[in-house]
Structures are given as C-alpha cells and as structure tokens.
Please model this.
Amino acid sequence: MIKIPQAGRDLETIAVIGAGTIGSAISISLAKAGYHVISTRRRPDLNAGLKAYGITVTSDNVQAVTSADMVILTLKPADLVSEMKKLSQILEGKIVVSMAAAVPIRVIRHILPRSFIVRSMTNIAAEVNAGYTPFCTLEEDEGKISFVSRVLGVFGETERVDEKYMDALTALSGSGPAYILTIIEAMMYGGLKVGLPRSIALKASYQTVMGSAKLLAMSGDHPSAIKEKVITPGGVTIDGIYELENGKIRTSIMKAIESSTLKARKISKDLFPEESDKN
Ligand SMILES: NC(=O)C1=CN([C@@H]2O[C@H](COP(=O)(O)OP(=O)(O)OC[C@H]3O[C@@H](n4cnc5c(N)ncnc54)[C@H](O)[C@@H]3O)[C@@H](O)[C@H]2O)C=CC1
Ligand SMILES: O=C(O)[C@@H]1CCC=N1
Model:
C-alpha cells in the first residue's frame, strides 16, 4: 500500500538521490518550500552548501529512501538502473519520480514493479520556482498524481503529458536554459561591443528575455504578433532582424532542439536496446 501523506508539507520527506547539479537545484527549491529534504551523492562533502537550507546530505541512499514519502532520482541515465536494482526492495510501495533523461517508464517499472513510477523532466530554473516540469505516468491514481503535481509544482509550471513527448521535452525545456543562456550571453556581448558597461549589458539582456517571456505568457499571443509590434517601419529593430535572419538563428535553434532530441533517443537506444526493439 503506497502511503500518500495527508499532513502539512513540513511533515513530508522527499529523498533526492544523486544530488549533483539538478538534484541540488530541486533540493534547495523543495527545502525553501518547507519540505523535509534528504539528498544523497557519492561525496556529500562536495555539497555541503545544501546544509544551509536545512537539507540532510548523506551518501546513504538506503537511509534516505527509507524515511521518504517520495523519492526523486536525479542520477545520470547510465547510473539509474544499477542504483534502482540495489534499492528495489526499499523502494517498494514508494512514489518514485525519475528525472533522468532518456530512461523509459517501462524500464523503471520492470525493476520496480511495486512502486508508483513517474518519469519527469525539470530544468535548472526549478531552483527559483520558474522551471517547466512535465511528467508522465502509466498509473491512474488521482491522490498520488495530485501529490506528485503538488511537489513538482514547487519547481514552477508542471503538467502531465504522454510519455512519447518526453525526449522532445528533454531537448526543449530540459536543455532549453542552456540555449537561452547562450542567447543572453550573445546579447550581452553585443552590448559590450557597442560600449555598454558589463553590468548594464547583462541586466538589459536577461531582463529583456524575462520580460518578453512574461508578455508572451500573459498575453497568450503568438510570438510573431508581439515581434511585429516591436518592429517600427524603417526603424532600428528591422536592421537587427535582418542580421538574425541572415545568421539563420531560427534554423540553428530548431536544429539544436532536433539534435538534442535525437541524442536522447540514441542514449535510450544504446542503454536499453531491448526497449527500442519493442517500438
Ligand atoms: N542538469 C540539468 O539541468 C538537468 C538534468 N537532468 C537529469 O538529471 C540527471 C543528473 O544530471 P546532472 O545533475 O546534470 O548530473 P550530475 O553529474 O551533476 O549529478 C549526478 C549526481 O549523482 C551522483 N551519484 C552518482 N551515483 C550515485 C549513487 N549511486 N548514489 C548517490 N549519488 C550518486 C553523483 O555524485 C552526482 O553528484 C541526468 O539523468 C539528467 O538527464 C534533468 C533535468 C535537468
Ligand atoms: O544535458 C542533459 O543530458 C540533461 C538533460 C536536460 C538537461 N540536462
């Protein structure tokens, strides 16, 4: 019987197994939201910073899982299977959320047949509650799904999707901050090139990206419709747009997301050839 905590979140314990980059980001976010967080990694001394948020940091996965209401796995795809095998008995009856790229639910379910399995993909903005965290599960249980949504909702927007979209979402929103930050960096360099002080160039760049995204989200308009409003006929913006089109920026970004999606599929195929044979 899987336990669904009914009490306040301060009584709920979340174990984050593999607190490297993303595991640390979500551990901090959960701790700030009032959850009791136990995070593990091979070398806890390398992540002592988490303790400042009241997070227990240990290398003992068994201890972390035993007391957890939900277990979030933020291990690399290749490490996930061996660790799940080791922990399979104590994961029985637990809600297990895998954040690993490219690992299908069927693989996890095969190893953990008596756990409630969720596959999810957050992004680094989860640390400041501004991520996008799609998840999928093959199980139907309103209570557990609502608990999962509540916890993943701490990371920002969340929604349930079909598993067939997960590799594409890994490439788009999981990897996405790396693409957007490359663009922000390029904007900042543009500012430096035309003589802006570094701090002003950086702030002007990220604030412009945040503002554009907020306007898009709040207006519900298509990006092109807002873009058209910025381009004053015969004005300044159109010359910049001309250069972007010349540099094939849209093709580059589309190709980046396509390549990243194909890489997720390749990782999956290399690690789990028997699964890809079934598709
Ligand atoms: N970096 C990101 O922005 C995102 C990463 N992910 C996924 O999260 C996973 C981890 O990615 P990163 O955080 O970037 O990698 P990472 O290498 O920074 O983190 C992995 C951590 O797992 C720890 N680890 C390895 N074996 C362990 C074990 N047996 N027990 C406890 N800890 C163990 C390592 O010490 C390391 O700290 C990957 O599957 C990736 O696809 C998902 C969303 C976003
Ligand atoms: O680069 C990666 O494989 C992971 C998945 C999404 C973000 N980082």
Notes: The chain has two domains: 9-164, 176-247. The chain has twelve helices and eight strands. The chain has a mean pLDDT of 95.
